[in-house]
């Protein structure tokens, strides 16, 4: 690390020590949990305390008894929070001056603002620092954050200086825009790239297509966020920048909850800060071992806005390891939004990687979107060079996964729009029946 980077690293921990060392203590707890597992008994006690607090300080849970098991509480989602927002606010914390507001982007619906108390903020900070370090990024390193920088998330000049961060806007990702980004990354000696997977994809494609020399770059870590990244893209970025590429599992309302394995595609979860349930797709019963299910999160430290059994819309296959009263949780497959899952002709859910992996190396393709229109009916949007794209080859790669009677059509488009947040949707399910499976 450069001198100014070390100064920021030691300066942060020094200031934390002066303030009582809470973040360092939480950091050590999370680190120990990843190494040795999380205490089951301690987790159960955290859940009991949180339920008791919610029952005594919120309107939403006041009809429940303090000893209600977690499994007997209702599963909630963003719509529940929006419809009963005030009822979730804790009377003990809602007016605390050291609370902060965290807002979702609203890219797939209406934005939602969550309240976090100071202790939750400190846990978020500790978890973020640990999971960043696991991916090769340390506080103080020069970072380029690639996203759409709308007004409610923009950082001030002083904050950017303190965090040693560069805001890079991904609104424009044509060749000229990408080249300008790469010039800044090289000139400013950026050590870490954090950004939307779709933006990182455009950077990687540009490097491959143009032969852009990045051998003198000093990037030491790449952390994709917000969108699934195809394994083949991850490998390409690792090869191009000669550094680890490990995605975070995170959202605005909870924080950074996990990090991708160094080799495999799955995610290691911070079980010190969050309790996860994987429930069946069509009921609130626990999913069987190895079964695709809905991710339901209990945030163990948000007391200002208790989040108990929150179905955040994501789906996964989980693996749990229990030993000597401690456990670790690993999401062996993370499918993403339930509303964007696609199904074959027999109604079986398919991983998005079936599409993204097969589309990654197709010549002539700049952008694509795969859409399920109805049961067994699909459309593939393609934006790129029609002369280079071999449509028969493309459909031949995908059709076997969909089923013998699948109807797959291809449409050429001039542009595939991004969402309001700047994220790019690769997979879209317009078949409402699919969402209910």
Q: Which second-level CATH architecture of the largest domain applies?
A: 3-Layer(aba) Sandwich
CATH homologous superfamily designation of the largest domain: ANL, N-terminal domain
The CATH class name of the largest domain reads: Alpha Beta
Helix content: 25-40%
Which of globular, elongated, flat, extended, rod-shaped describes the shape?
globular
Number of strands: 20
3D structure, described in words:
This protein has 13 helices and 20 strands. The chain is of the alpha/beta class. Strands 1, 8, 9, 10, 11, 12, 13 and 14 form an eight-stranded antiparallel beta sheet that branches. A four-stranded parallel beta sheet has the order 5-4-6-7. Strands 19-18-17-20 form a four-stranded mixed beta sheet. The longest helix is centred in the first third of the chain and has 18 residues, at 40-57. It has helices spanning 3-18, 22-36, 40-57, 78-83, 85-88, 118-134, 157-163, 175-187, 197-210, 231-241, 353-359, 391-402, 432-435; strands at 38-39, 100-103, 113-116, 143-147, 165-169, 192-196, 221-225, 248-251, 255-260, 267-269, 274-279, 293-299, 310-323, 326-337, 342-343, 349-350, 365-374, 377-384, 407-412, 427-429. It folds into two domains: 3-275 and 322-332, Rossmann fold, CATH 3.40.50; 341-435, ANL, C-terminal domain (GMP Synthetase, Chain A, domain 3). Helix 12 (391-402) links the parallel strand 18 and strand 19 (407-412). The model has no long low-confidence stretch (mean pLDDT 89). The protein is globular.
């Amino acid at each position: 690390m450069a001198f100014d980077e070390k100064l920021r690293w030691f300066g942060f921990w020094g200031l934390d020590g002066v303030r009582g060392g809470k973040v360092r203590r939480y950091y050590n707890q999370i680190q120990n949990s990843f190494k040795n597992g999380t205490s089951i008994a301690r987790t159960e006690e955290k859940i009991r305390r949180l339920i008791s607090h919610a029952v005594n300080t919120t309107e939403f849970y006041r009809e429940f008894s303090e000893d209600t098991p977690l499994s007997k509480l209702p599963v909630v989602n963003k719509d529940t929070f929006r419809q009963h927002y005030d009822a979730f606010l804790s009377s003990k914390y809602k007016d605390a001056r050291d609370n902060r507001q965290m807002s979702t982007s609203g890219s797939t619906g209406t934005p939602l603002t969550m309240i976090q108390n100071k202790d939750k903020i400190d846990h978020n900070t500790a978890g973020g620092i640990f999971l960043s370090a696991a991916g090769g990024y340390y506080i103080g390193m020069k970072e380029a954050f690639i996203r759409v920088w709308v007004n409610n998330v923009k950082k001030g000049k002083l904050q950017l200086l303190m965090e040693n961060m560069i805001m890079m806007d991904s609104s424009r990702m044509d060749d000229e825009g990408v080249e300008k980004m790469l010039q800044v990354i090289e000139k400013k000696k950026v050590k870490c790239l954090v950004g939307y997977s779709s933006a990182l994809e455009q950077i990687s494609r540009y490097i491959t297509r143009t032969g852009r020399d990045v051998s003198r770059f000093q990037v030491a870590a790449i952390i994709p966020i917000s969108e699934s990244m195809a394994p083949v893209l991850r490998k390409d970025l690792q090869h191009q920048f000669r550094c680890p590429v490990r995605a975070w599992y995170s959202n605005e309302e909870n924080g950074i909850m996990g990090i991708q394995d160094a080799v495999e595609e799955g995610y290691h979860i911070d079980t010190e800060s969050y309790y996860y349930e994987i429930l069946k797709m069509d009921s609130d019963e626990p999913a069987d071992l190895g079964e695709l299910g809905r991710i339901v999160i209990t945030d163990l430290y948000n007391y200002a806005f208790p989040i108990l059994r929150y179905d955040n819309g994501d789906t996964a296959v989980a693996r749990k390891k229990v030993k000597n009263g401690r456990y670790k949780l690993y999401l062996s497959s993370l499918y993403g939004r339930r509303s964007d899952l696609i199904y074959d002709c027999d109604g079986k859910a398919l991983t998005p990687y079936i599409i993204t992996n097969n589309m990654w190396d197709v010549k002539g393709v700049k952008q694509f979107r795969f859409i399920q229109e109805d049961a067994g009916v699909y459309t593939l949007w393609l934006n790129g060079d029609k002369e280079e794209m071999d449509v028969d080859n493309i459909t031949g790669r995908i059709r076997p996964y969909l089923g013998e009677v699948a109807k797959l059509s291809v449409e050429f488009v001039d542009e595939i729009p991004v969402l309001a947040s700047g994220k790019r949707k690769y997979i879209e399910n317009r078949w409402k029946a699919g969402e209910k499976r």
